[in-house]
Amino acid sequence: MGKVAAREFRNEVSDILNRVAYGGERIVITRRGKGVAVLVSVEDAEALEELENRLDIREARRVLAEADRKGEKPIPWKQAKKALGL
Predict the structure, then answer these.
(1) Helix intervals (H) in 1-86
(2) pTM score, two decimals?
(3) Neighbours of 9 (CB within 10 A)
């Protein structure tokens, strides 16, 4: 992963965006030497989102299976929203 200071990023934003979008490069934006953000391609962001969704689904299934083994019933969404005042 490349690193670019925030000041350099501001001055060269178009070139840096092209490196990410067309070159597939991942770039850490730094401020005072510390990473504050990472610029990734849309494809990388979509892949990360998909991975997060899969992990969330796996965890939800695990929790539901554990509750089922314990004989617990999940709370219906409508009831949970009402209890939370949503």
Answers:
(1) 6-11, 13-23, 42-69, 77-84
(2) 0.71
(3) 18
Q: Which residue has the tokens 């030497």?
A: 33
Distance, in Å, from the CA atom of 81 to the CA atom of 73, rounded to the nearest integer, reads 16
* Nearest alpha carbon to residue 39 among 63, 64, 15: 15
Mean pLDDT calculated for residue range 12-27: 96
> What confidence score (pLDDT) does residue 74 get?
83
What pLDDT shows up at residue 75?
A: 87
CATH architecture of 2-40: 3-Layer(aba) Sandwich (3.40)
Question: Residue 73's pLDDT is what?
Answer: 86
Dist CA 3 CA 38 (whole Å): 9
